[in-house]
Amino acid sequence: MPRTSESGFSLIETMMALGVLTTGVLGAAAVMSAGMQNLGSSPGDVIVTQKATQAIEAVFAARDSHKVPWDQIRNVYGESGADAGIFVDGPQPLTMPGNDGIVNTVDDPVGSVETIPLPGPDKTFDTGDDKNQVLNGFTREIAIRDVEGENNQLRSITVTIIYHFGTRTRTYKLSTYISAYS
Question: Which residue of 50, 82, 94, 153 has the lowest C-beta tally within 10 Å?
């Protein structure tokens, strides 16, 4: 009588394969969960990038229009403790600009928190159902420092915006340089 050879998977091989498959599925689920959390914070990320860019563009516009003299494009206290500029030191709420049109300056009205328009349920701007989102919980700091060795003709600008998303704190920094020459 000839011997037949039956081959297949043993119970141990099957259990090992299931263990590897389970590890892979759990890893993919963790990646999906982290992706969903990051996706949820993306509206806030867009807001902070725009607000930081607007702040820097306002500083450049003030310099170019000569609305603010070069010696005042600094923080009030700054590095020296007496820089005598117009930009308030430290994190500030996102308030509306004052008469000079520049945010985070000494003439900004207290308590006038910025708002941004958002489309309503129809997802279209400039219709009757649009809403304004108040930017509570956001802070912005504009730090302006002289660049060493440049004879007070070059400064660095760093805008830092911090906001909270759920239990996490998110920080966005935008840095550039500005010269006395427009």
Answer: 82
